[in-house]
Amino acid sequence: MAESLRTQQNLQLETRREQWVAAATNANLYSGAGSLVLLVLICISAGVTAREYRAKSMQSWISTGLTGLGQRIHGGHRLEEIGQIALEYLAGYLRAQVGAGYVVQDGAGFALFGGYALPRERLAETLLVGEGLVGQAARSRELMHVRDVPAGYLPVSSATGQASAAELLVAPAVEHGQVYAVIELGFNRPVTETERALMERASELLAVAIRSGIDRNRLQNLLEETQRQSEELQTQQEELRVSNEELEQQSRILQESQAQMEVQQTELEQTNAHLEAQTQQLEYQREQLLRAQSAMTDKARELELASQYKSEFLANMSHELHTPLNSTLILAKLLADNKPGNLSPDQVKYAQTIYAAGNDLLALINDILDLSKIEAGQATVSVETVTLSKALQTLIDPLRPLAQEKGLTLTATVAPDAPATLDTDPQRLGQVLKNLLSNALKFTEKGSVALHVSRNPDDTLSFAVKDTGIGIPAHQQELIFEAFRQADGSTHRKYGGTGLGLSISRDLAQLLGGSIHVQSTPGEGSVFTLVLPQKLVPPSPEAEPAVPLAAPAPARAAAPVVAPAPSAPALPPVAAPVAPAAPRRAGARSILVIEDDVRFAQILSDLAREMDFDCHLAHNAADGLAYAMHSLPSAIVLDVNLPDFSGLGVLDQLKRNPATRHIPVHVVSVADYSQEALGRGAVGYALKPVKRDELVHALQRLEAKFTQGLRRVLVVEDDERQRESVRHLLTNDDVEIVGAGTAAEALAHLRGSTFDCMVMDLNLPDLSGYELLQQMTEQDGVSFPPVIVYTGRALSRDEEQQLRRFSKSIIIKDARSPERLLDEVTLFLHQVESELSAEHRQMLQLARNRETALEGRNVLVVEDDVRNVFALSSILEPTGIRVKIARNGLEALQALERAGSGGQPAIDLVLMDIMMPEMDGYTAMREIRSRPEWRRLPIIALTAKAMKDDQEKCLAAGANDYIAKPLDVEKLLSLVRVWMPK
Which residues form the HTH cro/C1-type domain (predicted)? Predict the structure, then answer.
């Protein structure tokens, strides 16, 4: 039993020993496998580390090479030195055996600028783009690596032997896509990728250096040329100095000879010499006086030029201030009205203060503008017959509240012997008298201010403004008439103001042919007397200075101006519709606002919506015309100075299109083109800045026009058959014709009702047409509709000017045919042409196709491009216009001098290109406006683009209007019709 137990234990021990041995063996195997894996991982890590080290070494090698290259080519090296330095460095750093470099020439090829270890006879001096490997590398702009180069292709030689290159690197130096040089290197060994990378990056660095070298060479050449010219100038100055010394020496010799001769003369001769010396002294003094006078003249010219520049600046600045001030006044008025009632009383008071300050600023701007116009000689007068009593009443009534507020008595009297009327400019007269009365009210604390009109023995009229104010000392009575001067100009003065009022009044008085005088005693008051002639003779049109038409780098268009126009006269312009082919009516109360000032356009839009209108905005002429043609709005508010086309041209196209001519148009602009706009059918004209009340009145007037059902026409004609003929011609369902055979009947009708248009003959049995218009002007209860003169004879310029004296709001047409009369009446009645009878529509089409306003007129085309001349001639000649050609500004001036003399017809209008040789359009227009006989000549500038500064330069140089290239045929013809003299 014990033996078996021992045997069993031994077996268990043996089994355990075998298990231990197996476990130890497995442990050894696992340990060896883990060691092997660890060894493999260590090897892999060492390989990655070595690879990264080699990559960093290669990158460091590349950076070192680029840094070395940059250091060597940095600095003021010439172009030839840069190429040789770069080639030698790259060949040495890359261990190349041979090399060559080529730099780009001005043409299309490359020139050799260096070689490395290669005989000169093996190098080509010039290469073309695409020629050989160098040319191909320049064309492809990529590095070329050529392997297995044939033996003898690129020899490497020394004093002891010769071999051939095995591989080539051809690298173009490129910057911003432009090749500046090509470098070719030859190697006796394979080229590595690292060396290729270095070569590619070095080529970019080399391109920058070569471009800098090229620029440096150009600057050096310019400097040498400048130095050469300077030396030539110095040489010429030296020659002039020598010539002057010779002349002085000759003068001294002559003086010495004369002295010797005087010594040898007798006593009589000595007396004569003494008298001659006195004469010479007097001559010298005269010369000195002439020199002083010349210097004073030059100084006066400089002062006049400076004053002109100042006046132009003031005029331009005043116009520029009108646009933002316009929005400020309107918005302040909206806030002050507080219609929503959401503002506090203090906020309303603030808005009222802003509005009042804006009006004060507007008055100051207008004063500066008037002063600048007067100083620049650009102020004009419009002579009309003025009724004294009515004019004084209109002047005194607005000032009574101010006088009552200060407790002053304000009166106006007319002497019994004074005439009832005088011929002068009513606007200028009112401006002077209002300023004198305002000054009297401002400087009078108690007492009275009186205006008295009397007649002088020399048939002049005296307007005496007498006050009981502070008075003016005698030594200051002349200073107060100077601009910006006041009797009390200190900073602590009691009375404000700019000191412009009396200066402007004095200049305006001179413009009206009169003068202003002052008599004053300090503490007792002053009397300012305006003396004017009873009849002011206006200057002739040739002598009238031109009023600037607007407030304050063209480039030439390469293409021809326009394509040739067809041989037949152009039909009325029709803009392309926006979407559908047929126009659609926008709505019963829709208004289109064509205005480039975004702020003012938004103000108009808000006001229109407030008055229950549907408003659409267009900020240029093209969009406005397209919307008007497509949507047919009920009314249009139009600006003149649009960025792409003149507003007057837009108005002309609207009124010549049968689909849109009935739409009433109200013009709002900073420039005064009222006569041109009203003459083409506008219902009203407002000058910016516009008050809110004026805008409301304008929209109400437009509403009255497009909602009007029955239109009334007054026909004043003494011949009954002629009157019935006109009635039959104008009869329509919505038109009532009222006839009058005498001027008395016409006045009675005008007192009793309102008419939309008046057709009259000049020869009436009881009064002439001129007398009838004068009585209409003088009577308060008589309406003044647009007047069309229908007569069998042509009106002369003097007769038409006499008719226009009565009112600027009258549109006078010389309608010599039934078709023209029908066309003009339908224009002012705003009738829809499609609703007229077929006979009337045919007559209207016939009247428009005649283009009588252009037939036989002479237009000077100033253009140097023969293609543009041909195109313009093709447009104008089919309308009956005779075209004269000038290739530059000098030829234009010569053509204008020849015109009107020697049997040659006068020029009616000028089309002026801007960019021309010898004399450009700006200079030519300034020269034309400097001549009195050409200041009224219409000029349309042909600009390369319609940018704001381009327009302002043309208008400031003297152009009446502008149109941008490439020209639109219908737009050009519209402007020609607008500005063609009647």
Answer: 371-399
